[in-house]
Amino acid sequence: MFSTDQLDLRRMLCPLPVIRTQDHIKGMSPGDTLTIVCTDPGVLTDIPTWCRINGHEVTSTEEADYEIKITIQVGAE
């Protein structure tokens, strides 16, 4: 069974959202899902780029009320 986690990265600026996401995913298994909630618009390019480099997949991106939610499916790395 796969797990689903959420990570609150509001009010953090680049590069912290990517670093915190990377650190959190290290403790997850392939197929698990992580949703990050951010306020830094830079994550819209930084997180997908990091995911492509590291073998993870962005499955959804939502923007509302100055917040960005990005859902990542953990890959095999």
From TrEMBL:
<protein>
    <submittedName>
        <fullName>SirA family protein</fullName>
    </submittedName>
</protein>
<dbReference type="InterPro" id="IPR001455">
    <property type="entry name" value="TusA-like"/>
</dbReference>
<dbReference type="InterPro" id="IPR036868">
    <property type="entry name" value="TusA-like_sf"/>
</dbReference>
<comment type="similarity">
    <text>Belongs to the sulfur carrier protein TusA family.</text>
</comment>
<dbReference type="Pfam" id="PF01206">
    <property type="entry name" value="TusA"/>
</dbReference>
<feature type="domain" description="UPF0033">
    <location>
        <begin position="6"/>
        <end position="73"/>
    </location>
</feature>
